[in-house]
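Shape matters. Shown next:

___
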Amino acid sequence: MNTQLARFNMVEQQIRPWSVLDLRVLGLLSQLERSQFVPAAFTSLAYSDTEIPLAHGEHMLAPRVDARLLQDLQLQPHESVLEIGTGSGYLTALLAQSCAQVLSLECHPDLVASAQQNLAQAGVRNVQVRHSTGVPTALPEGPFDALVLGGSVASVPAALLNLLKPNGRMLAVVGDEPMMQATRITRQANGQGHRQILWDVVTPRLHGFAETPAFHF
């Protein structure tokens, strides 16, 4: 595979048409080898517009979704970021190259190990990947400037706001199929969250978060 050409086509044919126009974001997507983060069986799909299966029913998000999440977080070089749902570590690496420090939580120990290996091979050093289950309520590294969820949730737990600094922002895909929305929630000075719906997308579920109760007749 000509990875340089594949990355170019990914950016020009998938990412730019999806309203990702931030030159810094486009530069990162153009430089980072996504193939380093893809399971060996799916290397040929590394730069395709598709979700890639990981262990335990998890998935890598499509590149255009990672790019849009990164763009809408609007990270600054001095900021700290919490990611919940490391997966393969690809979005983690993009985050790390956009800020000062990333703490990434993953609920499956084998994915923690593989993501750590992927990040090390890619030369990404300002990341800590940690095994964690459920919804974190307090972390010694916090509060954070930004928080991103690596998969969709039925609703955003209110406890996550407490992990953000005042004016910190969280980005999550919220809702149930077939209607999910990328949503940015900014923590206000009074501790409440200001919610802004950004765009429609359907992504795989983030493990460890509560589902919407089913309706029974």
